Amino acid sequence: MSAKDEALEQHVPGTTKLFVWVWVALLIMTGIETFLAYENLALLLMLTLLMGLSVIKTGFILSYFMHLRFERMGLFLMIVPAVVFILCMILIFLYPDSIRLLHMQPH
Amino acid sequence: MNHTETETMGSAAWAGGQSPFAINKKKMGMWLFLISDTVTFSCLLIGYSYVRIASPDWPRPFEFYPAIVKATLMTAILLTSSLTMVLGVHAAHKGERGRAVKYILLTMLGGVLFDVIHISEWINLIVHEHVTPFQNPWGSPLLGGSFFGLTGLHMLHVTIGVFYLGAIAWGFGTKRFAAEDVEVSGLYWHFVDLVWMFIFPLVYLINVAPK
């Protein structure tokens, strides 16, 4: 490793206790997701709840396990908004069209 | 560039220069790869969601046992392997090589367990339920193609990750690799975990068999 890389390498922050708490929170959210799948909820509500929990889980994994919370803000701004923007652009055109196709089916 | 200049550049949030993100080049490369892989998996998941919504005869084949129990167990295993990975990275940065290697090996074990359970799930679907990528006994034939495509690509990532971690464990244990290499491999492993956090609800939980 070059001197420059050594200078840039940062010590990984966080403690074992913090990581275990994050892991427990992720397991609990997984349990809630499985529980919700067997509740008699409307599909849209179910999808919203499940995706909401998945986004929270993603936030935990990115922030603590992937250490993005401890990196410089510039790295976060390079990664997250761009990916969210791309996904939003795809989704804007996806759902209206898929629902249109569903309604075009013969009954 | 000398050492002092590097430190100065890293001191301000918008300092710019050669290292505006204050991370080494390997980590930067891995983040860029993960962004591209995010788009790949997103396109697959969104494509799957498209046909799922647009198909009125979309089947809901996943019974509580074996499918949902196995998928939940696989999720727990991946999350646990992420915990062991982050503890391995932590140990590597502290210079505890032996402990770091043990954690990486535990992470690999999690990956292998995940693959074994997933393959048993595939065998159950193919052999007992007669699901193929092109047809199934219940409804829309697109179920098999999207299910095997999505979960297959993810399983490939897990399998590659197991070999990657094996190489890192060997290299770090023999002092050929540095702690930053362990951290970069950790980013890959956590990403594989992260993707499953979307496959699990979208592919399995939304398609739970009605009572």
Output the keywords.
heterodimer, A: 107 residues, mainly alpha, 78% helix, 0% strand, flat, B: 211 residues, Four Helix Bundle (Hemerythrin (Met), subunit A), 6 helices, 74% helix, disordered N terminus
Description:
The complex is a heterodimer of chains A (107) and B (211). Chain A is built from four helices and no strands. Chain A has two domains: 1-71; 73-107. The model of chain A has no long low-confidence stretch (mean pLDDT 87). With 107 residues, chain A is an all-alpha fold. In chain A, α2 packs antiparallel against α3 (43-65). Chain A is flat. Chain B is an all-alpha fold and 211 residues long. Chain B has a single domain, classed as Cytochrome c oxidase, subunit III, four-helix bundle (Four Helix Bundle (Hemerythrin (Met), subunit A)), CATH 1.20.120. Chain B has helices at residues 3-9, 25-54, 64-93, 97-128, 142-173, 179-204. In chain B, α3 (64-93) packs antiparallel against α6 (179-204) and α5 (142-173) runs antiparallel to α6 (179-204).
